[in-house]
TrEMBL record:
The lineage of its organism: Bacteria, Bacillati, Bacillota, Clostridia, Lachnospirales. InterPro entries: Sm_multidrug_ex (IPR009577). Keywords: Membrane, Transmembrane, Transmembrane helix. This is Small multi-drug export protein. The keyword rRNA-binding does not apply. It comes from Blautia stercoris.
Length: 166
């Protein structure tokens, strides 16, 4: 993920402001808030501004995933082109679902909140949707997980990494 963020920082289109670039990276699966905060660090965006941009960017896709992904997957599975990809995505998401099944709310919080590869709000929302976790549990858990990931990534990006880059 870090190499993707560095590539994006080096090759950022000139028509994008640093803030828009961070916002867009925060919306992208895999990179999400973690990648957005790392990019914000590299682009020297102040931490409080970066937090707001990254959280908003990371939150925008979540309701769509929670509410519509099962129907979208069902529709895409009917096509020859997308069926293998959707089945692979479902297998990968469900392969990461053990802690969410076992601990539901707190499992989802930890899954979204601990910034490891393959975790985050996108995958957490996908797994919650596929496991049919109630929205009253999944939405607060994802929000709490995002807050946790934000704190961890600010410590990494603006603390440890920030002091190295300065």
């Amino acid at each position: 993920m870090e190499s993707i963020v560095h590539w994006f920082a080096a090759n950022m289109p000139s028509f994008l402001s640093p803030e828009v670039a961070v916002f867009l990276v925060s919306m992208v699966p895999i990179l999400e808030l973690r990648g957005g905060l790392l990019l914000a660090t590299l682009l020297k965006i102040p931490m409080t501004q970066a937090i707001v941009i990254c959280i908003i960017g990371n939150l925008i896709p979540i309701p769509f995933i929670l509410l519509f992904i099962k129907q979208i997957f069902k529709w895409l599975k009917k096509t020859k082109l997308f069926c293998p990809l959707i089945e692979k995505l479902e297998r990968r998401a469900m392969g990461k679902s053990d802690q969410i099944k076992r601990y539901e709310f707190w499992g989802l919080v930890l899954f979204v909140g601990i910034p490891l590869p393959g975790t985050g709000a996108w995958t957490g929302s996908l797994v919650a949707s596929l496991l049919e976790v109630d929205l009253k549990k999944s939405v607060p858990a994802i929000l709490l997980g995002l807050c946790m990931a934000t704190v961890i990534m600010c410590i990494v990006g603006y603390g440890a990494l920030g002091s190295i880059l300065s």
